[in-house]
Design a protein that fits this description.
single chain
């Protein structure tokens, strides 16, 4: 009986530590699109990087009582690609490359969160077109601050990871373009204004 009590105490302590390591109010946090960005880099000819971003993104962050209850989702419009060159972007959207008519969005749904303090790992599933593959993002938690103008509280995150185009049937470009695309997401979310009931 004593061993069971000890195990229960250890488990409760671990849960408390995990909860304390996630200083976010429970509920649905709202994306701040003006201070969020989805960026990427891909090597061209193996010697230089092309940098770009996706201008249109919708994302949600739900915070529960522990990291195990956290859920993250995002939908990115592939047609909103911007590499700083209008002709290149138009060609990238075409049926020759991304084919945004057939693949309008890229979506992410989290399946697990782990970590502590500033460093976290976000596991999930990435879907492009009709193909879904696992994706893990390394997440740096920047903290929570209050905005003086309106009193809202914002949380900041930087997430990085790699996507292989071939995993999603995006093998266009041959040797001209690297198979690996590096992604960097800088995201701000706004804390719920009113405490939300977690019982449901």
């Amino acid at each position: 009986m004593a061993d069971n009590d000890s195990a229960t105490t250890t488990s409760a302590s671990a849960t408390a530590t995990s909860t304390a390591a996630l200083p976010l109010a429970p509920g649905d946090w709202t994306l701040d699109p003006l201070h969020s960005a989805v960026n990427f880099t891909i090597r061209h000819l193996g010697i230089a990087k092309v940098r770009g971003r996706f201008a249109q993104v919708e994302a949600g962050l739900y915070v529960g009582e522990t990291p195990a209850d956290v859920r993250v989702s995002a939908t990115i419009s592939l047609a909103s690609i911007d590499t700083g060159n209008a002709d290149r972007d138009a060609h990238t959207r075409s049926a020759d490359l991304l084919d945004v008519e057939r693949r309008p969005t890229m979506t992410f749904r989290s399946t697990g969160v782990s970590g502590s303090e500033e460093d976290w790992s976000l596991d999930g599933e990435l879907t492009i077109g009709d193909v879904t593959r696992p994706l893990t993002l390394d997440v740096e938690f920047g903290g929570v601050v209050e905005v003086p103008m309106d009193g809202s509280r914002h949380a900041g995150f930087e997430a990085t990871g790699e996507i292989r185009r071939s995993d999603f049937g995006l093998e266009f470009g041959g040797a001209l373009l690297s198979d690996v695309v590096k992604v960097q997401l800088d995201m701000q979310f706004v804390e719920p204004r009113e405490p939300q009931d977690q019982a449901g």
